[in-house]
Design a protein that fits this description.
The chain has 19 helices and no strands. It is mostly helical. The chain has one domain. The radius of gyration is 20 Å and the shape is globular.
Length: 403
Amino acid sequence: MALGDPLQVMALTRLSNPTVSLAVMGIIKAVANFLESPVIVMLHVSTALAPRSESRRALWRFMLLLSAILTLFFLALWLPTAYSWLFREVFAAPPEVAQAGRVPFLIMVVWPALIAWRRYFQGQLIDGGSGHTLGLASAGRILTVVAVLACGLILHGQGPIVAASALVGGILVEALLITLFARQKGEPRSSEEDTSHLPVSIAGVARFYAPLALSMVLVWGGRAALVGLIGRSTGGTLALASWMAGWGIVLPIANATRMVQQITISAWKAAGTARLMGYALVAGSLCSLCLAILGWTNLGHSLLGLFWGGDKELGALALAVVQLGLLIPCQVAAQNVLQGVYVAQQRPWRIQWATMAGTLSLLITAWLLSHRMPGASAAAVAMLVGLALEIAVLAWGLSRATR
């Protein structure tokens, strides 16, 4: 899965108007991720509620309702007045960027619903010990992305349309495969442990779900606002494009550590926080090593050059993001273990304070630095600061609880 975003950047830099295309997709993905944010925790909740059949069925109904609401809201943002306000006012995009985004924005309307569908069944597979099938589904996703991008390159398609089609096509194939594997596995067995505390109605699921979802809304709302700050920084469109190119390398590699949260939710009682944190930091360190090779070695620079094409100015700004993001995989790994412990302890509201602190420090840091250094570099530093503060607040809360 980590190859998806770099391959997308690689394709965009080889089609016409790469800077505009990268800026367009940076904005569209910020919006899509923000609207996806309420369903990101569908995986965590599905894993937590899988032991009880009534809870699984209630979560299924809740997932369908939430998906419909998010899809309609996404579609409303595509209407001319809302779309113009979003691109021109919120993200400070120039006219050519706003115009190029119309069709790919519409293609991405189904993104939140597809993510919710996929994550619902992923949680059941993880709880049932069939996590290996997730890798097979991810392989189907990346093959689809490669196929769509290759067709776009051969046919000289419009970059943003090609990229959006690859994203949606890939996630659709992955969701179908995940559903197939879950159906083949059959209905999960009910747990022998006491599950009476788990919700069995849509309202009960919503109460369990809300604090976790709110934390993700804050995170991705903050990151969408960060893109708006980048658009207003020195460089404008180039800053957006270089952030898309650089962060498109850092984030997928860092996200390779996020599955430790599901492992933590399922295994925290048996393994303990310290052991899980050690495992997560090993995973994070390996991912950071990948970024170190890419950002600080000649071999890495050659590989990145293949992805970013021949635009030296864009490449230099994007390289700075990769270099500054060296520690982010370790931070993401630690963050997800600590969040997983809170979920396993049925204390999801505790995550809110840490998320709010991290998001606020992210935006303040980006705002302070955005006119003192390249916008993409300012955003990378802000991410480091925001994640560090969030981890500190999460760890402080656990230390107080164990006294």
